[in-house]
Amino acid sequence: xxxxxxxxxxxxxxxxxxxxxxxxxxxxxxxxxxxxxxxxxxxxxxxxxxxxxxxxxxxxxxxxxxxxxxxxxxxxxxxxxxxxxxxxxxxxxxxxxxxxxxxxxxxxxxxxxxxxxxxxxxxxxxxxxxxxxxxxxxxxxxxxxxxxxxxxxx
Length: 154
Prior knowledge:
The structure is a single chain. Helix content is 31%, strand content 19%. By secondary structure, the protein is an alpha+beta fold. It has a 5-stranded antiparallel sheet with strand order 5-2-4-3-7. It is globular and about 45 Å long. 36% of the residues are buried.
């Protein structure tokens, strides 16, 4: 029987992958060990699709576990950042609840499994490089994005 991966191993794998998305992984590790978030630039390994937590969590609940890529949240600032593939911008362009961030945009990343500066991973990077498929994310928001209760009854 295979032994399950421990939570510590899972966090280490996610942190290693995330640090390696930076041009200087050692700098990322030093930043995290100092208790700060590490600035990691998008566009080499992934892009960032930004939503609000208020709209993103209901959409997130419609995504099956095996389809979930990393999602960073700031619940206090009502922001969520989905890590998506580099070709996701076109697929998500018409989803009104999603704002695509351009390549070169800096995402302030805490290590997995820990909240830093009000930021934490809703779904941690797992070390595999798995990202949220933009078609799955668009479908989770529904056609044209989530509708407000007033729009739903109209």
